[in-house]
Amino acid sequence: MSQKLPPLKIYTSQLPLVSHKNMLENEEEASHSQLFTPCPVPPSFPKASKPNSNQPYPNGPVCIYPPNIYLYAKPTMPIIQSFDVVINVAKEVLHPFRTDGRHYRDSKHNLDIQVFDHIEYVHIHWDHDTQFALELDKLVSFVAYNAMQLNKKVLINCQMGISRSACLMIAFIMKTLNLNVSDAYEYVKERSPWIGPNMSLIFQLSEYQQIIRKNSSQGPYQSSSLKQSKRKSEGNLLFPEKPHSAQLPLVSPSTSESSMFTNLRRTRSSGSISNDAS
Q: Measured at the alpha carbon of residue 46, what is the angle toward residues 243 and 40, in degrees to the nearest 5?
């Protein structure tokens, strides 16, 4: 004769509390992870473990001015070897090569250049307090000459790719596309949401804007590189047909504007920058 077991008592206080809202959120998160997978990274770039908001450029250099002008943080050797010209504007960042390479002086742009195999490496010793407004024009000209006339792939970097290198990239966009600081900042920010120069650097860009206007009083600026590219490609100024070497993937993650830039007011007419906050 079978023995009857006592009824099993379950105390609800011992069970984890799972609300209907949490169940829906978990289901939504699971379905989201199935639908969206990270884009593959080319073998020339080290894969980031988990991209997060504190890690800029998780997928490698970002193309700011197609097809061959890129912005990045401190590059590794495999990344450097993917470019023809590297411009490092961080004083504290040293090149990763084992030797000092071959040196020569670029008299056209007044720059000292190191050459490693096919790579031209320019080290500009800026820190976050450097007054660089007067240096920007020769660097912008150097970038335009190599990328747009010689059709080389150019990387601009600093330690984090946020401040100093971003300033040089913004300066290039200002002069090349004839934009004021606000619009050039927005152009770069849309392509690299991690940038965020401090106000001291922004004011130096504003000073550079006045230099551009002073030097181009006879109308909108066009560099000699742009003019030659125009003659060669019959009006296709911005996008040469064949890059010098293989293209990197375009990465344009979307994010909200930084709190610093929301305080900047567009001034298309005057070109100056002002703070909304008192």
A: 70
DSSP state of 249: P
Can you name the CATH fold of 63-262?
Protein-Tyrosine Phosphatase; Chain A (3.90.190)
Would the pLDDT of 149 be above 50? yes
Number of other CB atoms surrounding residue 4 within 10 Å? 6
Cα–Cα dist 193/190, whole Å: 6
Rounded-to-10 torsion of CA 145, 150, 153, 157: -20
Residue 160 burial class via C-beta count within 10 angstroms: exposed 0-12, middle 13-18, buried 19 and up: buried
39 catalytic residue (yes or no): no
Per the residue annotation, which of 39, 63, 158, 167 is the catalytic one? 158
8 A C-beta contact, residue 156 and residue 143: yes
Name residue 85's beta-bridge partners. 120, 154
Asked whether the beta carbons of 248 and 42 are under 8 A apart, the reply is yes
Model pLDDT for residues 117-142, shown as the tens digit of each residue: 899 999 999 998 899 999 999 999 99
Alpha carbon distances (Å) from 267 to 35, 56, 168, 216: 42, 29, 21, 19
Binned at pLDDT 50, 70 and 90, residue 276 comes out as very low
- Helix extents (H) in 178-216: 181-191, 199-215
* Amino acid making up residue 1: M
Give the model confidence (pLDDT) of 161-171 as tens digits: 999 999 999 99
Locate the domains of the chain by residue range. Answer: 63-262
